[in-house]
């Protein structure tokens, strides 16, 4: 017979910004508390941006241990109207990385103030996987490092992309080096005066906005592919606050180097990395093909 302690489920709760979201959140929190679910609230929703669920992992491997993460908030709109991605890792080592982050937040440590250990890379059937958290690991630097390995192309789909994030400068440098750089951006966020859209357009980088329609909400991806080798995804928008203040996660899947040492996630199966990268890049290209080319004012 299961004890009451064993039956408890622990949840880290972060409110979604916006006045309209507060009342549904309160109702959900109330329902969870009535069901004896241990909920901890972050009272600064401006910096809490995590979206992940850990299943059946309590500091040890279980047959059903898994982690679900990605760009989707657990809301009606993000699951049914907005463009998002989720990834499920069936690997206890990846679960352990997210559990450490969860425990840190559960103890009340949000945003800046803690430096995580150096991110490790794990080999999953020939594919290296590395998990990073913001602001502990400054994921923007990892994204830029991976981008600079490109020999052919970088494709991306992003919700919020602010100018001078560092990633936009890397894209402009890659375009100048004759790499193909194309991207899809949310039409609401991408049209803002502070967005990177305008500088990227002046650098002759092709950008696309999804067409507005009753069925479409937002482009909410935070997704990038590099050549036929690397996928970068997770909760991380390309902004300075995401890098410096917010609680975020990214995962880097794949590598262009087949002879990576074991400590860096090798050895690498290039064909497996390419298959996975093409899967995500096809989604980016689908959004671009159904969208409209952004034409700046010059």
From TrEMBL:
InterPro entries attached to this UniProt entry: PLD-like_dom (IPR025202), PLD_domain (IPR051406), PLipase_D/transphosphatidylase (IPR001736)
What EC number is given for this enzyme? 3.1.4.4
Keywords from the UniProt entry: Hydrolase, Lipid degradation, Lipid metabolism
Q: Which Gene3D superfamilies match?
A: Endonuclease Chain A (3.30.870.10)
A Pfam family this chain is assigned to: PLDc_2
* SUPFAM superfamilies named in the record: Phospholipase D/nuclease
Q: Name one GO biological process term.
A: phosphorus metabolic process
Source organism's superkingdom?
Answer: Bacteria
List the protein's name.
phospholipase D
Task: Please report which protein family the annotation says this sequence is part of.
Answer: Belongs to the phospholipase D family.
Which reactions are catalysed by this chain? Answer: a 1,2-diacyl-sn-glycero-3-phosphocholine + H2O = a 1,2-diacyl-sn-glycero-3-phosphate + choline + H(+)
What positions does the domain PLD phosphodiesterase occupy?
215-242
Task: Spell out the molecular function terms from Gene Ontology.
Answer: phospholipase D activity; RNA endonuclease activity producing 5'-phosphomonoesters, hydrolytic mechanism
Keyword Endoplasmic reticulum annotated: no
């Amino acid at each position: 017979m299961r004890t009451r302690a064993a039956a408890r489920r622990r949840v880290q709760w972060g409110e979604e910004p916006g006045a309209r979201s507060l009342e549904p959140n309160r109702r959900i929190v109330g329902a969870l508390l009535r069901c004896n679910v241990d909920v901890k609230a972050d009272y600064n929703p401006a910096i809490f941006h995590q979206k992940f669920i850990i299943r059946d992992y309590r500091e040890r491997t279980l047959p059903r241990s898994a982690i679900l993460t990605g760009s989707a908030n657990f809301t009606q709109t993000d699951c049914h109207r907005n463009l998002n991605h989720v990834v499920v890792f069936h690997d206890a080592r990846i679960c352990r990385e997210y559990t450490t982050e969860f425990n840190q937040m559960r103890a009340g440590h949000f945003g800046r103030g803690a430096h995580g250990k150096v991110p490790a890379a794990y080999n999953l059937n020939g594919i290296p996987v590395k998990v990073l958290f913001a602001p502990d690991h400054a994921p923007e630097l990892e994204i830029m490092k991976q981008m600079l390995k490109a020999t052919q192309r970088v494709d991306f789909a992003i919700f919020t992309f602010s100018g001078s994030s560092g990633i936009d400068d890397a894209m402009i440098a890659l375009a100048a080096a004759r790499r193909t750089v194309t991207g899809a951006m949310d039409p609401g966020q991408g049209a803002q005066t502070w967005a990177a859209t305008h500088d990227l357009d002046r650098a002759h980088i092709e950008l696309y906005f999804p067409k507005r329609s009753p069925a479409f909400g937002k482009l909410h991806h935070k997704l990038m592919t590099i050549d036929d080798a690397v996928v970068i995804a997770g909760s991380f928008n390309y902004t300075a606050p995401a890098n410096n203040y917010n609680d975020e996660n990214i995962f880097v899947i794949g590598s262009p180097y087949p002879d990576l040492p074991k400590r860096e996630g090798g050895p690498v199966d290039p064909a497996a990395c390419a298959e996975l990268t093409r899967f995500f890049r096809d989604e980016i290209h689908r959004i671009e093909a159904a969208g409209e080319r952004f034409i700046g004012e010059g």
